[in-house]
Amino acid sequence: MCGIIGYLGDREATPILMESLKRLEYRGYDSAGVAVLELPHNGDATRTSITKSEKKVDTLIEKLNANMPSGRLGIGHTRWATHGKPTYINAHPHTDCKGKIFVVHNGIIENFAELKAELQAAGHEFPSDTDTEVVPHLIEANYKGDFLAAVRAALKRIRGTYALAMFSSDDPELLVGARLNAPLVVGLGDNEYWIASDITAIIPYTKRVLVLGEGEVAAVTPLGPEVSTLDGKTVKPKIVHVDWDVAQAQKGGFDHFMLKEIHEEPDAVANAMRGRLTDDGVVSFREFDLPDDDLRRIREVLLLGMGTSLHAAIVGELVIEDWAGIPARAEDASEFRYRRPTFGDKTLSVVITQSGETADTLVALQQAKCRGALSVAVTNVIASSAARDADGAIYLHSGPEIGVASTKTFVAHLSSLYLLAMKLATVHGRVSLERRRELVEALRALPDQVQGIVDREKEIAKLADKYSGYKNFMFAGRGLGFPVALEGALKLKEISYIHAEGTSGGELKHGAIALLDESFPVVAICTDSPTREKMVSNVHEIVARNAPVLALVTKGDHSLDDVATDMFEMPAVEEASSAVLNTVMLQLFAYHVATKLGQDVDQPRNLAKSVTVE
Ligand code: G6P
């Protein structure tokens, strides 16, 4: 969704803003803009130059290259339209009536209509349709010579969510950031500082990052940032060291980030398990280090997520139930937040979110916490909101994921959930030492097995080529194959725009089968599992309706030899490992179908990497 970058330092701001906006593109957006406070020439007064584009960042960069503002303070934004179409006027930064205050914003000002009416009545004029525009005007209305005080007074009136970067041309050495339920960090350099909506924007510049807390304001001057509350109380800054590197955020010779990230999956799986698993299957998580007695009290596990993370949650549900014998349920966080679910303090709520910032997931986490559940966030982003709000964190250590459609973080989520399931199974005494050792062996073999699938990319691309002309797809599976089918369908539809549905093999007969004919192929997950034979029967039912079938089967299984249209052989592995390997195959399949159709796989239309609004 929207991205924010701000700079104050001793270098030219514009090239830094341009570079950072390029790095923010992956979040998904429609228009972009920057405001730079220009250095005065020959005694002129300071002036701020605004450059906007109703199109992509490249268009903005062309404009800036043609007319480069020179200054050491500036803010930039990529906008994902909520209030008002993606037009030039609606693009950020927005300003006040006098053109002195400049603001970029992520989130939604929920009471903007009321504030706008009040400000209009007082004579303020609003050229845009955005909710954001009330912010500079509200600051202007509260301005009595102290910009920071005016910002605090304005923000106290705002309901909703915001991450903001702001400056006033009356204060050429002050860059202000503020957040409420939307992430914002301050990058710390030598005599230079950045404000950014996410770390990816600033990793080439610094690895020292101040993470702003809810309702906090950062006032950044050449002396450094000072953090305070809206009431002006000073807050001790929370500084973290980020271990991501620049190369991870570049394409490294691949055509797309998504492809690069799929190729990083062997490492993503290994990194998620590194240092956490002994030969006897004893699992330890550094940032989720509860005494076994506390985990023994758990009677239910609630897994919350959205999108791909919801599919990881369903895999987690099945594995925790199976291995640990604890009732588990995966829930769509956006629905869960509005329910009155019954559970209590013997519940562990596991929040699955690669970004750690998905709005619905964060609220669902609060809900679970309010009802007394113990909570842990499984996330890729250190010090993200989910990691901070939950009682503990399990970090994926996958490095930045730039492709909007999650790939490597999904397999890292699965690997982490397998470890969590093992831990719960062990403390609950539900798994023998022998079985644990088997599972450890299986998990340790997984990175190489993932590599084995990635190495077969050409074979998968050939299949993708053959199937890329269809307009509809069904993905079917049972057991762990069911969430994998859901994820396979999601991946295909989000990056290729082909209609695709996921279903369980059993549910197929209750409706979806009516759609099938020779023009509607089914990707059937038939690898070894306790329900493999049932799935094979389902394939027969599908073939009887003339639908083409691409079946994923375990090597050596010939039961579909003369039945399926195409088969892709998988190694014989544990069912949990299969879920990972099958997913990798389906990700590559989706990638190659989408690229064959010429789609923008890294930034699919209408989608955002981190959905920070409800
Ligand atoms: C967006 C992304 C998906 C992601 C989902 C949940 O829709 O496009 O790839 O799965 O958000 O994101 P999270 O950061 O919570 O895992």
Question: Brief overview, please?
Answer:
With 614 residues, this protein is of the alpha/beta class.
* Total individual domains: 3
| Helix content estimate | 25-40%
CATH level-four homologous superfamily name of the largest domain: Aminohydrolase, N-terminal nucleophile (Ntn) domain
Count the beta strands: 25
Strand order of the largest sheet: 3-2-4-1-10-9-11-15
Structural class: alpha/beta
What number is the mean pLDDT?
94
Count of helix runs: 18
Q: Runs with pLDDT <50, length 5+?
A: none
Ligand types? 6-O-phosphono-alpha-D-glucopyranose
- Give the distance, in angstroms, between the N- and C-terminal Cα atoms: 12 Å
The rough form would be described as globular
Strand content: 15-25%
- Strand count, sense and closure of the main sheet? 8 strands, antiparallel
CATH architecture of the largest domain: 4-Layer Sandwich
Find the CATH topology of the largest domain.
Glutamine Phosphoribosylpyrophosphate, subunit 1, domain 1
The level 1 CATH classification of the largest domain is Alpha Beta
Report the radius of gyration as a whole number of Å.
26 Å
